[in-house]
Specification:
The chain is an alpha/beta fold and about 220 residues long. It contains 10 helices and 8 strands. It is globular, with a radius of gyration of 17 Å. The protein starts with 6 loop residues before the first strand and ends in an 8-residue tail after the last helix.
Amino acid sequence: MANKIETILFDFDGTLFDTNDLIIETFMAVLGKHFPGRYTREDCLSFMGPPLRETFEALAPENVERMMEEYVNWNLENHDKLAAEFPGVSEVLKKLKARGLKMAIVSTKRNKTIHKGLALMDADGIFDVVIGLDDVTHAKPHPEPLQKAMDALGADPATTLMVGDNSHDIDGGRNAGTLTAGVAWSAKGRAFMESLKPDYMLEAIGDLLEITDGAVRAQ
C-alpha cells in the first residue's frame, strides 16, 4: 500500500476490548428469559456488531424497549468481571500515539459503555475522539460516524485506516473512503474477516506498528 496512514479509527468491542463473552452471556440472559431454549451461544454471534435496537427490533418488535433495558442492566452489572482488553492492546496504543498518529474510537455502543471499558484499560486519555451511538443518527456501516471522527481529527480518508472485527467496520470504512483492516481474533473467525476483503488483516494488534512504521509525515 502506497498510502501513508496518519489516522486510525478503531472499533471497540471485539477489536480492542474483549467483550465477546460479556455480549454473548448478556444476550443469553435476556433471550433466555423471553424465548426459553430458542437461542444458543452460536446464534448470538450473529447479533454482535449491529446496534442493539436493530437486533431486538428484528427479534421482538413488540418488546424492544423492555429487552433493551434488561440487556443494558445485565451488561453493566457484569461488565467488569466478564470483559478485559485483548493482550498487548494498551501498550501498542501508547506506542502509536507516541508516533503522532491521530486515533479515535468509532463504535456502535453507547458512549457510557465505551468509556467504562476505556477506564478498565487505563486508556481513556489515548484517544483524541470517541464516537459512540449517542453521537450519530446512523451507525456503521453508514459512513456518518467515521466521517464525524475524521472531521473532528482533521483527517483525510485516503490516509485513514478503519480497524474492526465485523462487516460493519469494513463496510463502514469503504463507505467512508478509508483503508480497512480486519482482525484475525474476531469472534466470527479469521475466515469470515478474510471474506470481507479488507486492505489489511491483523494477526495481532502489534501488526499496526509495522503497518504504520514511518507513516506519519514530519510536522
